[in-house]
Design a protein that fits this description.
binds magnesium ion; eight-stranded mixed sheet; binds uridine-5'-diphosphate; 17% strand; alpha/beta; 8 strands
Length: 310
């Protein structure tokens, strides 16, 4: 008998655990027709509310419920990695605990696996219910990524994705510390079917992503999947040299024709300010990559387990 593992990362989702479970079991009856088992693997990402107790309650009535609980909040990326490491299924699907990923799509997803796809991914075609400013920056981010990264990162892609064991093993082989799963999915490749759906708003509770957190996350994504920013320093450097060269010629010619009028202090100050600004900016970019390299070299574990259930 083969098995489907549902990985659910949870961070302070006490009021969503039970409703999500009920909704999920309602939509997995098709698994019996396929002679497949189910495993629901909750990853508690260091929740500070009653998430763990809620999961324990489910476990008492259903042996198919499992849990890995972290020693603190390591972030959703770490939770997803832990899920993949601990899932035993032949097929694995990620789902958010807040019911933004409708379980009703599961049956359809499997129909594409039957057709020979290795992975079935989802993307939302609308962003309704989201603050407009957030949508705007999200769009900018995907637009930029398309230009500076060779890895395909789909606009509006969610982490709701069904994968075969082969894809799971491929992702597990990427043990990097700075994880950006949207990029990792694109990087590993494989035959991917995209399903589209309208944005569903979070059932209960609040989003765990503030605007600032998302912004930093997007910088992580850029650093993880593009080295184009590093080239920026060279490009700007060449450009400034060219400009300086033209100006030197201009000044020599002016000196020869008009003599030596002492002027140009304000413009000099502006130029010094601007070039030093650009230099700091480029050093900052260098620092970003160095910091990422530093964290990577330390080789710390991606997450730490406090408790396992099942
Ligand atoms: N999540 C997590 N760790 C975190 C933040 C979020 O495991 O540090 C989980 C969260 O419980 C939810 C999923 O990741 O199941 C998506 O989070 P959220 O709904 O807050 O994000 P959004 O849907 O607004 O992008
Ligand atoms: Mg959500």
């Amino acid at each position: 008998m083969s098995m489907l593992s549902v990985i659910v990362p949870c961070y302070n989702e006490e009021e969503n655990i039970a409703p999500f479970y009920e909704e999920l079991v309602k939509h997995v009856s098709f698994l019996a027709e396929r002679d497949m088992d189910l495993e629901v693997l909750y990853i508690d990402d260091g929740s500070r509310d009653h998430t763990v107790q809620e999961i324990r309650k489910l476990r008492e009535t259903d042996e198919r419920v499992h849990m890995v609980s972290f020693s603190r909040n390591f972030g959703k990326e770490a939770a997803m990695y832990a899920g993949l490491e601990n899932a035993v299924g032949d097929y694995v699907v990620f789902m958010d605990a807040d019911l933004q990923d409708p379980p009703s799509l599961l049956a359809e997803m499997f129909s594409y696996i039957d057709q020979g796809y290795d992975t079935v991914a989802t993307r939302r075609v609308s962003r309704k219910g989201e603050p407009p400013i957030r949508s705007f920056f999200a769009r900018r981010f995907y637009h930029l990524m398309k230009r500076i990264s060779r890895t395909e990162i789909m606009d509006g892609a969610r982490d709701y994705r069904l994968m075969t064991r082969q894809v799971v093993d491929a992702i597990l082989s990427m043990k990097e510390y700075n994880r950006f799963t949207k990029g990792i999915f694109g990087w590993v490749g494989f035959e991917t079917k995209w399903l589209e759906y309208e944005n569903v708003e979070r059932a209960r509770g609040e989003t765990k992503w503030s605007f600032w957190k998302l912004f930093v996350y997007s910088l992580d994504g850029i650093a993880a999947f593009s080295t184009v920013p590093l080239m920026l320093a060279s490009v700007v450097g060449v450009l400034f040299c060219l400009i300086a060269f033209l100006m030197i010629i201009f000044i020599i010619v002016r000196k020869l024709i008009f003599g030596d009028p002492v002027s140009g202090w304000p413009s000099l100050v502006c130029i010094i300010l601007m070039t030093s600004g650009v230099q700091f900016f480029c050093t900052g970019i260098l620092g970003q990559y160095l910091a990422k390299t530093y964290m990577e070299v330390k080789n710390r574990p991606i997450y730490l387990v406090k408790e396992k259930l099942g």
